[in-house]
Amino acid sequence: MSNLKQRLLSWMHGHVFAGDLIITLVIGVLLFGVTGGITYNPGLLFDLKPSTQMAWEAAMLIPLLIRRWRPQTGALLCVALTLAHLIFGPCLLGADILALFMLYSVIVYGNPKNTKAFIILALSIGLLASALAAWTMSNGPLLTGGKVHTWSSWNGSNPNGVMATEDTLGSIYTGTSMSEVADMMAQSMLVLTPIFEVCIISTVIVAFWQRARLATVRMMRERNEAIAARDQDERDIAALAERARIARDMHDVVAHTLSIIIVQSDGGRYAGTHDPAVARNTMETIRHESERALHDMQRLLGVFGGSPHADYNDIGNLVEQAQNVSPDIRIRRNITGTASPEQLSEQASIASYHVVQEALTNIRKYAGPHVDAHIKESWNNGLLTLTITDNGRGAAANIDGHAPGYGLLGMKERIESAGGSLQAGPQLGGGFEVMATLPYGGKEQVTDETGEQYASEQSESCNTTAISSKARLSDEAIASHTAVNISARIPDQPSERTQETNQPTGRDHRSNALQHLRITAPNLHDLLASLKLKSIQPADTSNSRRLNWVERVSAWTQHHYVLMDSVGAVVLFTLLNGMSTSLFDGSSLTQLSHAIATCCILALALRRRFPETCALIVFVLSVVQLVFLGSIEVGHIVTSLCALYSAVLYGRERAWRWTGPAAVACSVLMGLKAAADQHGYITLFGAITASVGVTKPVSATSSSSAAFFTSVMYTVAVLILCAGIMAWARWARSSDSNTLVLQAREEALVAEQEKQRILAANMERDRISASIQAEVTATLNSVISQAVGGIRMLDAAEAQGKEPTADEISAAFKAIGEQGRAALKRMRKLLGVLRETGFSDDAHAGSASELQLRPAAPLEEQLQRASR
Length: 868
Known about the structure:
Elements: H1 2-14, H2 16-35, H3 50-60, H4 62-65, H5 71-88, H6 98-109, H7 115-139, E1 147-151, E2 163-168, H8 178-229, H9 231-271, H10 276-300, H11 315-325, E3 330-336, H12 346-366, E4 372-380, E5 383-390, H13 407-417, E6 421-426, E7 432-439, E8 445-447, E9 453-455, E10 498-501, H14 524-529, H15 549-559, H16 561-579, E11 582-583, H17 590-603, H18 611-628, E12 632-633, H19 634-650, H20 656-678, H21 684-691, H22 704-734, H23 739-799, H24 806-836, H25 859-867
Helix pairs in contact: 5-6, 5-7, 6-8, 7-8, 8-15, 8-23, 9-10, 9-12, 9-13, 9-23, 9-24, 9-25, 10-23, 11-12, 12-13, 16-17, 17-18, 17-19, 18-19, 18-20, 19-22, 20-22, 23-24
């Protein structure tokens, strides 16, 4: 059924001519039925028979056939036919009303550049028509000497063409003075011209309003189609991003540990040669670090998608560890400004840690011995600037054949994913410098000494919902890389206090967990923002055409739909309250009945914001009205139908499953109330209590058969009306012509796409882990085995009561170092495989992906490139 409906909608969208043909035939039948009885309609030149008038009516239907297929051609044809019948045919036709439809169509569906010309043309023809009609009605046809006839009806009992009466208008043909003729024409034009021009202007306003609405609908359709079209690209990017995350974390976890092991083994080879205790401690450290890296790597590739990350608060421990591992490296850490780690987003905090980690690792590996390292932090104007410099070999590090690896690439990706920027390279005077700039990522605004405010907004990470316990993705795998444009002014001479520490102690980031909580009461701005249509923006137009005031107002009303519904509810209440028409006469609790009707009407203010809640309120009040009260106001009936329509159109996809039975229940209650009224009961509740013997029955005012017939008639009528309303709402929901429905569909597409991205990333991680985890485990286990072998050698020597020789200790450390270097080399190769290859699934086998991970780019940038 759904597929049939979609095919029908697609056919109608693609065959507008066929739809307009059906509409034209229906209008033609109605038009001939209404105007077929006209017996008096003279023209400017001739006095025409009704059959000739019907021919002109049929001719005026022709432009209606192509009003959407060829709107400008149809409008010009309508102009030509209108001018022709004004001169050669009847002065006024019933089909002239169709000219307003053609004006509407050419504005809505035609080229906007020609809109002004068609409006001027329509106003001119309206003025001309009023003048010609005034002349004809005052003087009669020119070629008959003012004689006019009343003919037999075209669809009457007499044959067409039989003249009933003949008359000569009192005009210039009968000696009337020109001044009197002019007065008669002026009086006619004063009546006809405002009517014609007001109809034209009203049509123009409605057309502009609809054109703005359709432009928004088209924009949202295209956006939905674009989201659906890039679904595969999204999954591909999520898979590639997961590969990048795994490569980045493997580098930070495993490669960092291996570099420490190599440094430890080289240092232990000399420091522990003559000191077995130092040798043992060093080997125990190597084994401990290897086992920790193995554990972290298993969690990295495990079902939960990543291990817990260290963050900014662990930088102190990181500096202390680096100082202990490499005592010949002197590390200073300076903090400028007031450190506010609680304002950093989680992503920015993690990125800051890994920047320092990678920089210290590179210093330890490539800067050379006896190096001074300086870590400078600047907290200023919503930005954290981290600068890590050293006075080591710098550019000379490449002389030994060292090629840059993936550490800086992963560092750059982490910083950019948090909305920051990274610069790294050798310094002119020697040494190396890494400078990373990160926005705080919080919602607070920071004010400098001049009073200027700078705000940084956290990149929105994807709002993932757990599909299963295995379908959880790490915080960086498919995070939304929203570019954050920071334009904060940084003073040339900062006046903030400077803190200098040699070995700052780390703080447990969990101790600051409460500082991350921001409990704020909802303000008026947030409340009003929740009542707006978030996805609605004015449709893009070319630079050559600006939106007129009608289109701007139309776009504004679409955006503030709750406000417009509130205004509509007040207007409807005013109109219906003035009518105060009721069904079923009853004096019982009239004021309460009026109050319930008022509540139902005012509930329509939320008919689009909370459609099902509004419908439920109206349903409950309707049941109370039908059962316990007497009369039913017309406003209550109109409100109920409107609430039913809104619930089916704007509510959940399956809202009709409860609104349908609710409509059936109200229909049955309406029928029973009608039957009770036939029997003389004011309320249905009174009839029920009388039927069970609680109260005294009243004397019947009609027969049971008449009451039964009335009950069935009311029930069927209300059921048909409700069914028609629901069918209309379902059709509108499926026709892609409602902005709220399109917004809901867009949100559903985005949510489904998010799930698909998570699944794609999880599948990619599963495929990678199956092939890489065993190899990485074997690599780390080999280092652990070498360390354990060295410890056993020391234990064996101690058990024998002798001290191991320097050569034995040196050989043990040499084996560990060689194994560590071999493992690091292998690790770099594995990282290269992850970085430089495409997908791991069979669907992409043998094809080069356009979404390569090198050079790295944020996901949004990759998406933009992919959609071109």
